[in-house]
Amino acid sequence: MPVQYMYLWEYIVAPGKADDFQQVYGPEGEWVRLFAGAPGYVRTELHRDTAEPTRFVTIDYWESESAWKEFRTRFSAEFEALDARCAALTLHEAEIGQFEPVGASHVAESGGHDRAIGALRDSRKILEGIFDAIPVRVFWKDRSLVYLGCNEAFAIDAGFCAPGDVIGKDDFQMGWHDQAELYREDDRRVLESGVPKLLIEEPQTTPAGRVITLLTSKVPLRDVNGAVSGVLGTYMDITHRKLVEEALERERARLKQALDDVKTLRGIVPICSKCKRVRDDEGFWNQVEKYVSDHSEAQFSHGICPACAKELYPEFAQDK
User: Fold this and answer.
1) CA distances from 46 to 59, 78, 181 (A)
2) What is the rounded CA–CA span in Å between residue 297 and residue 313?
3) Is the model's pLDDT at 206 over the cut of 60?
4) Which one in 82, 110, 195, 284 has a CA-CA gap of 20 to 30 Å to 254?
5) How many Å apart are CA 16 and CA 134, to the nearest integer?
6) When comparing pLDDT for 119 and 151, which is higher?
């Protein structure tokens, strides 16, 4: 009977578990033996990603959607028990989607298979193109805070050549291991609360050892049942913007101080009518030149006027 229904799942296999995973999920594994007891089951295919060897896709073929749903109802307990036993084999699993042949009802199985694989391949290429084109870093982790994927820019920031090199690692294995616990604390809060953390300013140590400033946002990832299954994050480097902001703040403070000084000189200046000393804000009496120098950009040069010269040095003074 022609295949009318295909069910696709994606998996990231835990380190060292690839052989065990293939034995359980492959064409002769435990999942196939469970499916085989249900009417309407056709076959299962297991595919490995050539670019990311820890990433697998399964395609389960059924005669109809109703046959799949009947299996899930009839074998619900067995399904949940096997799924729980297999949890240790993977870091991540997600439903890709449910597919059916299009066109005439007599479409051959191979045609439906080719369309499902083609749709999966095209969808993945589109997503990779989007992630690599956007001007931010993108990453996602499972509940154990192990990286499941990222875009190319993030991989380079982490000191690697490609996103596949990041999968299966945690923050302690990145160039920013000094900030690992800071990042993971935010991750845990998102996982526990299910509430996003947006626009967090935080430091990051680059592979070259330079500390930069990031603007980071993190949101919970949810599985098909709505449960929080991981964290999706993005960030951008705002180091240049922070340096400009700090320089502007310093200049603003300098200008404010200059304006304050000018305002002081424009106000009432308490000056002694005899000695001409000026009282400052702290109550001390200063020479007028010191007061003016402290409260403005003015500087003094000293000389002597003719009247004072005649009084102080009459022997050198000449009558005019």
Assistant:
1) 7, 21, 37
2) 33
3) yes
4) 284
5) 33
6) 151
pLDDT over 70 at 153, yes or no? yes
Range in 69-73, 100-104, 234-238, 281-285 the model is least confident about: 100-104
| Tokens 């042949």 belong to residue | 101
CB 7 within 8 A of CB 98: yes
What is the structure's pLDDT at 119? 62
Which domains occur in the chain, in start order? 5-133 (3.30.70.100), 137-237 (3.30.450.20), 268-320 (no CATH)
At 95, list the tokens. Answer: 């439903």
**Higher-confidence residue: 312 or 93?**
93
CB–CB of 162/114 below 8 Å?
A: no
* pTM of the shown model: 0.50
Share of the chain above pLDDT 70, in %: 87
3-state SS, one letter per residue, for the chain: CCCCEEEEEEEEECCCCHHHHHHHHCCCCHHHHHHCCCCCEEEEEEEECCCCCCEEEEEEEECCHHHHHHHHHHCHHHHHHHHHHCHHHEEEEEEEEEECCCCCCCCCHHHHHHHHHHHHHHHHHHHHHHHHHCCCEEEEEECCCCEEEECHHHHHHCCCCCHHHCCCCCHHHCCCHHHHHHHHHHHHHHHHHCCCEEEEEEEEECCCCCEEEEEEEEEEEECCCCCEEEEEEEEEECHHHHHHHHHHHHHHHHHHHHHHHHHHHHCCCCECCCCCCEECCCCCEECHHHHHHHCCCCCCCCCCCHHHHHHHCCCCCCCC
